Amino acid sequence: MQQAYQAHNKVHTSEGMITKMAKVLYITANPNSVEDSFGLSVGQTFVDAYRQANPQDEVVRVDLFKEDIPMIDGTVLDAWNKLRQGTAFGDLSPEAQAKVGRMGEVLDQFLEADRYVFVTPMWNLSFPPVVKAYIDNVLIAGKTFKYTEAGPAGLLNGKKVLHIQARGGMYSEGPAVDFEFGDKYLKAVMNFIGITDYETLAVEGMNALPAEAENIKAKAKERAVEIAKTFGK
Ligand SMILES: Cc1cc2nc3c(=O)[nH]c(=O)nc-3n(C[C@H](O)[C@H](O)[C@H](O)COP(=O)(O)O)c2cc1C
């Protein structure tokens, strides 16, 4: 299939088909290398299979441990307050401009995407704190959700999320089910902004059953390839 030309996010092929190019954000929150991470290695398998199934799409890596993801702090709250009261962006302190400006970039990149793949390790029953910081950059009233008379409403309808989460123990079934807070929270906030098509791929039990670890990874990779076949649809 030959790509004739690209315009407005569409690929016109020699067969005359028009395929919409989608943008996938591959958001990772792990300082380890792919080789040393169960989650990242399953994530890599997913990305490779996704690219094969959807060569026209763009997959953009967002490495939360390398990128500047501002935290909501006193400077940011004060700047938001001033902006609400009519202060011009250019009249904010240089520090506030840098932080609020960067938060706007993180948000814009999120808004422009069609699909999201999060890869996180379970750390202390949840995900690394930079994921919460990232969520605080993208849950912005008027952009990803709005307040209505019937309560808050999500604005990102029609998008999709896959969360690949690596956990040392077992949390999808058994006595620890109620102790998993990272995936449940991510799902809740994605639903809150309108993304109800949310799937979890748990890579779990490697520390509890070390002899099974390679087998667990291999099975998770198979599942990743399966999900990749339909994630672009
Ligand atoms: C700081 C830290 C906290 C962890 N907390 C938990 C935990 O609460 N529950 C659990 O089952 N495993 C826990 N683990 C184990 C990891 O979830 C496990 O090693 C997983 O494979 C990490 O993902 P990765 O292989 O993609 O890096 C923790 C590991 C680290 C480094």
TrEMBL record:
Manner of cofactor binding, per the entry note: Binds 1 FMN per subunit.
Catalytic activity, EC: 1.6.5.-, 1.7.1.17
InterPro entries cross-referenced by the UniProt entry: Flavodoxin_fold, Flavoprotein-like_sf, FMN-dep_NADH:Q_OxRdtase_AzoR1, NADH:quinone_OxRdtase_FMN_depd
EC primary class: oxidoreductase
UniProt keyword Zinc, yes or no: no
Record field: catalytic activity: N,N-dimethyl-1,4-phenylenediamine + anthranilate + 2 NAD(+) = 2-(4-dimethylaminophenyl)diazenylbenzoate + 2 NADH + 2 H(+); 2 a quinone + NADH + H(+) = 2 a 1,4-benzosemiquinone + NAD(+)
HAMAP family associated with the record: Azoreductase_type1 (MF_01216)
Protein name (Swiss-Prot/TrEMBL): FMN dependent NADH:quinone oxidoreductase
Organism expressing this protein natively: Brevibacillus laterosporus LMG 15441
Gene: azoR
